[in-house]
Amino acid sequence: MAQTASAFAAIDIPARVRAHDWRTVEQQLDGSGCAVLPALLTADETDALVRLYDDDRLFRSRVVMAKHGFGRGEYKYFKYPLPEIVTGLRTAMYACLVATANRWNEAMRIEVRYPDCHGEFIARCHDAGQTRPTPLLLRYAEGDFNALHQDVYGEHVFPLQMMILLSDPGREFTGGEFVVTEQRPRMQSRVEVVPVGRGDAVVWAVRDRPAQGRRGAYRVTMRHGVSRVRSGHRHTAGVIFHDAK
Question: Which of 25, 43, 60, 95 lies deepest, with the highest CB count within 10 Å?
Fold first, then answer.
């Protein structure tokens, strides 16, 4: 654990998050409901996060996807207190995304507004009985996949979430592409494969996003998943900003 902790010791997560081009991120989110933040974590940092998976003291539960019809592979939910880097990513990313979240809700005529501080939003979740942390690590082997889904855990849902790829595509695994779909009213679903490298983060809509039509904004329903891993092992970290019942 000491070696793992040292990999995170000197990271200024808020500064690293803020250094990204947030105008471009916002434009990508508005255009497709999905945006990539390149090189959010270094190779040493992704390796350190992967090593956390085997320390069961850090997690509240382990889910084997095949048992629940979710796909194949497994994941573990962190327990509180979260590792410092996970807390830092969750807090810093929320601060950069909350304005988009509130603007989206206004466009979709949803009354809910989110506070500027992530801690205040988590307190809202906990007051409603959503007290279980949702950040997680996922592990896939050859033949594993994640079926299309939405990460909704209760009444209080922050409309954006994040994934960080912790493995090197093409070297440590093949296949396993991150996929998002969108369903517009009275139209067939559109599918997009989002190319990411090791250490890259993807931000996308949890459930709905606004799209602009001739008569104003309307809701687009989104889902996400992972295609079949053809070889090797694929590890990712998921950061969801609301907690679960």
Answer: 25
